[in-house]
C-alpha cells in the first residue's frame, strides 16, 4: 500500500548487463516536476550526454506515471514515454492510456528507466517487485497483438498488461510506436528507440495494491466537480458518442483540416466521407481507458468490400487525416484497415501517413518516379497503395526503406525543391490542423520542444472557439505569444505530468484546469499546492525541455515552419488566403519569448531559471 | 462440486425464443454413450426429424463433453460438436481441444444443445448457472480472434473462454469451422450450422468447481500408466517437439502423402520443404491444451519475405497438405500465412485447401477458365493465389462463392468429367493420406458416418506400422474389414466419447486403450466398467450414427470412393501402382459389414441392435 499518489519507487533497468535496481523517487523532484513527461524530461536532462545517437545504447527510454495514475481520478490511466527522439534529436514525449499505466502503478513504480542495449532480443517482466529478463528471440517479428497474446500465454496469466513494439520498431522505422492493448504511445519514434535497445516488450503484473489518497475527502470533492464538468461538456458528450472523428467535422467547417499534403483544405469534402456521421456507420463498441467515464475510443469495423473484417480502435481524427485527407483518400474502410495495420506493425499512423502523402506529392510533381517507388503509383486518392506501403515501410522493403526515415530525411535525400512541402518541424511530421488558419496553434508547433506536435499546447480557443482564458481571433497574429505559453504550460502540467487525458482537459475543464489539478494532486499527495504552483510546474517542464534542446544545438532558427506554410496561402475554403509569413512568425516568436522570459534568441534567462529553481 | 466425472446437467438453448432450460443427463444414456460425440449422436438421432435442412432452424448444434473432460486425466480437455453436416447431410462430428472444454465443464454442464435460429445475430454467455443472450449485431463480421478479444472486453473478464465463428460461418461457407482460442472444431461445416442459427459465439465462465473423482486412487493408478506410455512413445516425443508436421515425413516416406489433388505423391518432394525439419525453423513456442503434458501444438511464425509476421498455431499435418502438397505448393511461409487466415476467417483449412486444389486441377484441365475464376490463374504451385482465394471464399465473393460450396457441389456444377477427381466421400473433402496405399484407412473413409474422415478410425497399423492389435500389410485388401471396425470402435469410444486426444491414443496407447479408458472412466464415474463394455460403447455409437444416416437415405452405394481412387493407380513413389478397385472395395465392404453384424446392404440387423440395446 502506497500512500499519497506516489509509490516513491523508480525502477532502473540496465539492458546491457541485464540488471535492475530500485531507487527512491526524490521528493523534491516530484514536487517540482510532478510526474509523467515532467519527470521524464527531468531525468533525460540530468542523465543524457549531449549529442548521443537516439538509436544508440546511450539513449534512455523513460516510462513515467504521475500522482493521479491509478487513483480513482477519471481519465488518469496515463503514462508518458520520454526519450531523445530519432526523428528530431529533441526531447521526445509520447503519452498513452489504456490499462497498462494503472497496472504499472499497482506493480509499485512511478517510473521505469530503461538504459543500454540488450545483446539479443529481450522482454522484461515486472512483477512482485522483481524484473525477469526473458528472451524475445522467437517473439522478434511478431505483430503487436500476437506479441501481447503470446506473452500472456507464456506467463500463464491473461491479465498481464504488455507494452510492446511491432516489426516497425524492430526495424528502427524512425516513427515506430509502442503499443499497449490497442493503444499507442504513438509519436516521436519511441518505438524505434525501444527496438534499438533490442527490447521487444515490457510485461507487467500489478499486485493489486492501490495507492491511497492522502486527503480522500478533498480529492473526492474536486473529483465531483471534474465529473460534473465532463458531463456538462457538449464536446465530451460527442467524444463519448463518436470519438475524435467529430474533430474532422469541426476543423473542416472552419477550413483547417488539411488535405493532400497541405495543398488543399476546404475543396476536399472530407467531412462527408470521413467525419463523425460517416464513421458512426462502422461502430462496433466503445473502449475505455481504465477508470475513464467517457470512453472516447470507438472500435470500428468494416463489414463489406475489399477491407471487410478490418477492425481498429479508432480511427482517431489524426488518422482520418493521415491515412485519409492528406492522401486525398475518402475511402473510409481503407483508413480503418490502415489504422489496424499500423497498430499491428507498430507504426505511428500519423507520421507514416504524412510521409506517404509527401511521397505522393513528390510523385505527382515528378520529384520521384516509378523507378524510385519500385513500380508503385503513388497518386493522391489511390487508397490501394496504403496497405502495401505500410507493410513495405514497417519491414523497410524497397521504397519503404526510404520512407521509414520520415519526411525530413526523405526530402533531404531527394531535394529538388521538395523541402518546400516537406511538412515537418524539427523532423516531426505535421498533424492535421492547418495552422495557417489557427495561428496560436501554429506558434505552438513552432515552439514545441518536440517539433510539429498538436498535443503539447493545443489552441482550443482557435479550433473550438472556447474562450478560456479569453476569446481570440484565430487569424490574428498579435497577442498569440502569451496565449501559446499559457496553452503549453497548462496542458503540460495537467495532461503530461498529472497526467490526465488531454482530450478531456481541453474541451471540458480548461477554465478549472489549474484548480482541478491542484485539488486532485493535492488531495492525492497531501501537498498544499496552489493553482499557481501547478502552473509553474508546467512552465518549469517547458523550460527544462528547452534547455535540453539548446544543449543539443537547437536555436531560434529551428522554431520555424516549412516554406509552404509561410509562402502559400490556404487555397480554398473558410480559411482561404491565410498563411503565416516570416514576419508573422518573427512577431509571434518575439512575443512568445518575451512572455516566457527568454532572450530574443529563445534562451531562458538566468533570472527565469532561478525563478523556476532550475539548476 | 460434481461427483463422478459428470455434472449430470444438460443445457438446452432455444435461440428462436431466446430461452434456455436445464435438463438432467439420463444416467442410462451416459452409461450407454459415455459422452462426447457418442452423446451428441444419441441426441441427434433421437431429436432430429429426417430430411431437415442442415442450414435450417430444425438442425441442432450439440456441444458435448465426456466424463474425463476437466478431470486431471491428461489430454482430456476435449469437446465434440455434433450436428447434421451441411456438406454431407450425414452426422457431422468435429472435436476440439484447448481450454474451452474444461471451462465449460467447470461451468456445470456435460452438454449444451443449441436449437432454433435467432432472429438477429446473437451470442450467448454461460455463467453462474445462467445464460445471457447478447446481441452480436455489431460483432457480426469480426474475425475469430477479434471476436474472442471483444467478448472478453465486453464482459470485463480476460479469462472467459469463447468459441465462435468468423466471416465464413456467417456466410454459410459449407466447411466453416468453430474456433476457440486458436483451436478449431474444424470439419463437417459445424461453423456454417452455427452461422445459420445466427449464433456468433458461445462465451463461458467456469465457476472453478471441479468434478471430483469417484475413485481417485484407481483413477490415479491408471493415469500413471497412461502417462508412462506417453513418455515412452517415440511418436509422442516427436509430436511434442515438432508437432504433427512429423506425419508429413512419415507419410511421404511410404508414398501416401498425396499431392496436387491426388494426382501425385512421391514425385512431389514435400518432406524437404514442408516436413518437420522445415517447419522447425519457424517455431515460436509450444501451446498446450489444458492439462496436456505433450503440447503437440507448435506456434510458428514467418520472419521474412512477403509473408513475414504471419503467425499460426500449426500448421498441422493436414494443413501442410491442404494448403501445401495438394496445391503443389512448397512455399511453407504461404502455408503458415494461409493457416492463420483460415483460423481468422473461420475456415476449415483442410476442406478449403482441397477445394482450391480441385479448382486448380479443373483449371489446368480446362474444365474452368479465367472467366470462371474471375481472372485468377489457379495453377498448381502458385502460392500467391492462396490468401486471396481464402478471402474470396470466406466472403463468398466472385468465384469464392462457388468454391464455398465444397468439392462435391463444385463438381456437380461444372461436370465435364471433373467428378472423377472430385476428392470427397459423401461430400466431405479428402484428408492427406493417399488411401490407395493404406487400404484399411481407406475403408475407414468409405464407411465413416461422416464421409472422408481420417479421424474416425485412423489405421495407424498401416501408417505407422504399429502392430496393434496385430501387424498388417498396408497394401493388402483382405482382412481389413475387421481391422477397420476395431479402429473405428476403439477410436470412437476413446477419443470421441471419453474424450481423449486422438493423436495420443493412436500412437502411444493403442494396446492399452480399452483398459486405460475403462480405468480412467471407471475411476472418474465409479462405474464398474470393463474394457469389453468400453469397446461396446464405441460399437453402439457407430451403429447409432449408421441408423441416422440410413434414415437420411444413405445406402451401401454411398460407401464408396471417387473414381480416381478406384481407377488411377498411384503414379509414383513407394506406393506406386496401388489403387482400390471396385472389386477391392466390394470385398472390403462385405468383410466389414459382416464383422459389424450388418446386412450385405450395410444395415444393422435387429439382432445387432438388440445386442447393443439400441431401440
UniProtKB/TrEMBL annotation, chains A, B:
It holds the Pfam family AFOR_C. The gene is ydhV_14. Residues 6-208 form the Aldehyde ferredoxin oxidoreductase N-terminal domain. SMART domains: AFOR_N. Its cofactor is [4Fe-4S] cluster; tungstopterin. InterPro entries: Ald_Fedxn_OxRdtase_dom2 (IPR013984), Ald_Fedxn_OxRdtase_dom3 (IPR013985), Ald_Fedxn_OxRdtase_N (IPR013983), Ald_Fedxn_OxRdtase_N_sf (IPR036503), OxRdtase_Ald_Fedxn_C (IPR001203), Tungsten_al_ferr_oxy-like_C (IPR036021), W-dependent_AOR (IPR051919). The keyword 4Fe-4S applies. One of its GO terms (molecular function) is metal ion binding. This is Putative oxidoreductase YdhV. Keywords: 4Fe-4S, Iron, Iron-sulfur, Metal-binding, Oxidoreductase. Belongs to the AOR/FOR family.
Amino acid at each position: 500500500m502506497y500512500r499519497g499518489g506516489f509509490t516513491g519507487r523508480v525502477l532502473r533497468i540496465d539492458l546491457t548487463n541485464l540488471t535492475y535496481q530500485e531507487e527512491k523517487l526524490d521528493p523534491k523532484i516530484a514536487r517540482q516536476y510532478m510526474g509523467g513527461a515532467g519527470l521524464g524530461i527531468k531525468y533525460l536532462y540530468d542523465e543524457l550526454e549531449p549529442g548521443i545517437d537516439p538509436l544508440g545504447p546511450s539513449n534512455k527510454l523513460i516510462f513515467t506515471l504521475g500522482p493521479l495514475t491509478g487513483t480513482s481520478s477519471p481519465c488518469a490511466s496515463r503514462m508518458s514515454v520520454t526519450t531523445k527522439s530519432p526523428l528530431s534529436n529533441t526531447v521526445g514525449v509520447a503519452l498513452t492510456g489504456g490499462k497498462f499505466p494503472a497496472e504499472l502503478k499497482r506493480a509499485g513504480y512511478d517510473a521505469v528507466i530503461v538504459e543500454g542495449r540488450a545483446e539479443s532480443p529481450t522482454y522484461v517482466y515486472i512483477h512482485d517487485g522483481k524484473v525477469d529478463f526473458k528472451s524475445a528471440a522467437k517473439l522478434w517479428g511478431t505483430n503487436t497483438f500476437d506479441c501481447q497474446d503470446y506473452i500472456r500465454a507464456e506467463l500463464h496469466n491473461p491479465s498481464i498488461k504488455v507494452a510492446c513494439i511491432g516489426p516497425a520498431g524492430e526495424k528502427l522505422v524512425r516513427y515506430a510506436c509502442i503499443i499497449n492493448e490497442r493503444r499507442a504511445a504513438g509519436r516521436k519514434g519511441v518505438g524505434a528507440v525501444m527496438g534499438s535497445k533490442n527490447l521487444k516488450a515490457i510485461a507487467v503484473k500489478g499486485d493489486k495494491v492501490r495507492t491511497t489518497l492522502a486527503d480522500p475527502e478533498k480529492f473526492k470533492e474536486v473529483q465531483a466537480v471534474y465529473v460534473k464538468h465532463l458531463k456538462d461538456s457538449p464536446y465530451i458528450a460527442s467524444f463519448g458518442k463518436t470519438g475524435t472523428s467529430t474533430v474532422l467535422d469541426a476543423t473542416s467547417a472552419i477550413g483547417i483540416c488539411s488535405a493532400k499534403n497541405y495543398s488543399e483544405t476546404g475543396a476536399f469534402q472530407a467531412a462527408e466521407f470521413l467525419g463523425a456521421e460517416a464513421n458512426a456507420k462502422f461502430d462496433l463498441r466503445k473502449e475505455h481507458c481504465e477508470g475513464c467515464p467517457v470512453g472516447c475510443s470507438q472500435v470500428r469495423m468494416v463489414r463489406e468490400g475489399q477491407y471487410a473484417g478490418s477492425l481498429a480502435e479508432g480511427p482517431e481524427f489524426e488518422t482520418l487525416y493521415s491515412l485519409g485527407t492528406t492522401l486525398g483518400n475518402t475511402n473510409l474502410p481503407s483508413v480503418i484497415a490502415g489504422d489496424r495495420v499500423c497498430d499491428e506493425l507498430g507504426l505511428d499512423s500519423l507520421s507514416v501517413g504524412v510521409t506517404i502523402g509527401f511521397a505522393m506529392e513528390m510523385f505527382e510533381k515528378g520529384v520521384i518516379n516509378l523507378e524510385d517507388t519500385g513500380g508503385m503509383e503513388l497518386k493522391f486518392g489511390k487508397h490501394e497503395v496504403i496497405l502495401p506501403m505500410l507493410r513495405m515501410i514497417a519491414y523497410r522493403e524497397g521504397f519503404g526503406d526510404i520512407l521509414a526515415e520520415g519526411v525530413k530525411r526523405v526530402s533531404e535525400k531527394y531535394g529538388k525543391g521538395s523541402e518546400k512541402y516537406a511538412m515537418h518541424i524539427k523532423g516531426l511530421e505535421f498533424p492535421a490542423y492547418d495552422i495557417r488558419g489557427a495561428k496560436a496553434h501554429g506558434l505552438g508547433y513552432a515552439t514545441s520542444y518536440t517539433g510539429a506536435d498538436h498535443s503539447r499546447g493545443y489552441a482550443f480557443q482557435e479550433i473550438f472557439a472556447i474562450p478560456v482564458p479569453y476569446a481570440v481571433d484565430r487569424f490574428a497574429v498579435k497577442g498569440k505569444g502569451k496565449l501559446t505559453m499559457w496553452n503549453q504550460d497548462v496542458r503540460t502540467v495537467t495532461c503530461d505530468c498529472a497526467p490526465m487525458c488531454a482530450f478531456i482537459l481541453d474541451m471540458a475543464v480548461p477554465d478549472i484546469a489549474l484548480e482541478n489539478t491542484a485539488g486532485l494532486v493535492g488531495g492525492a499527495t497531501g501537498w498544499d499546492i496552489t493553482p499557481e504552483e501547478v502552473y509553474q510546474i508546467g512552465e518549469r517542464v517547458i523550460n527544462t525541455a528547452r534547455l535540453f534542446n539548446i544543449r543539443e544545438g537547437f536555436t531560434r532558427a529551428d522554431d520555424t515552419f516549412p516554406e509552404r506554410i509561410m509562402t502559400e496561402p490556404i487555397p480554398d475554403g473558410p480559411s482561404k488566403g491565410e498563411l503565416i509569413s516570416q514576419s508573422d512568425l518573427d512577431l509571434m516568436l518575439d512575443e512568445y519569448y518575451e512572455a516566457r522570459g527568454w532572450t530574443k534568441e529563445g534562451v531562458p534567462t538566468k533570472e527565469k531559471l532561478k525563478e523556476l529553481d532550475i539548476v
